[in-house]
Amino acid sequence: MSCSLASSAPSCEADTEKEEDNSAAGKNLYNLISTMKMLGVFVLCVCAMMDLTPAADLPEAKDENDQTASSPLVKRTVFRSRYRNRYFYYIHTPLTWAEAERNCQSMGGNLASVHDTHEYHGIQRVIMAASHDYKETWIGGSNGQEDRFWLWSDGTLFHYTNWCPGKPVYSQGQQHCVLMNHSAQKCWGNLQCHYRRPSVCAKKV
Fold first, then answer.
1. Taking the chain (205 residues) in consecutive chunks of 10 residues, what is each chunk's mean pLDDT?
2. 165 and 195 both lie in a single domain
3. Domains contained in the chain, number
4. How many helices (H) and strands (E) does the chain have?
5. Partner of 191 at 20 to 30 A CA spacing, among 39, 46, 70, 152?
């Protein structure tokens, strides 16, 4: 804008300053708009990159009845069921009695002790639900210290028994460990501890 000759000098200077202020404001607005456009493009690029990046695989959820033992010995599927005040874990993997007991200890329990007929049938139901059969299975009884003196590995009293006819057998002190679902009667037998069988662990709730 040009000042006329009739205009006073102070008025002309004021108009010039206004024009400069308007010009500066316009430049600032232009710069702001340009910056916002660049930010918008950047955000779109980031979103596109996120869409193209494969997501990390998430661990599959596990059912309560299908869990994996943390033991270095056994990392296969086990079956868990609650009965009274204990959880019972059926371990499919055949192990020696000592390996089975150590595996149960790594899970915070012991091979299962049995204290009455109802509990025995409850454990049988756990085995049937897991394996669809009444398989011979290690439980926590042994007489490794002295023949005819049976103990549970969890330290509870050995006051209930369910021996099959003719059992237990004492053969030169070798039949030290107890298994359940033995013979056609599905009762208790004793067997040399180095044989491999599935097992049942028990852990207090």
1. 47 51 60 61 45 32 40 62 92 97 96 97 95 98 85 97 94 84 97 96 96
2. yes
3. 2
4. 3, 9
5. 70
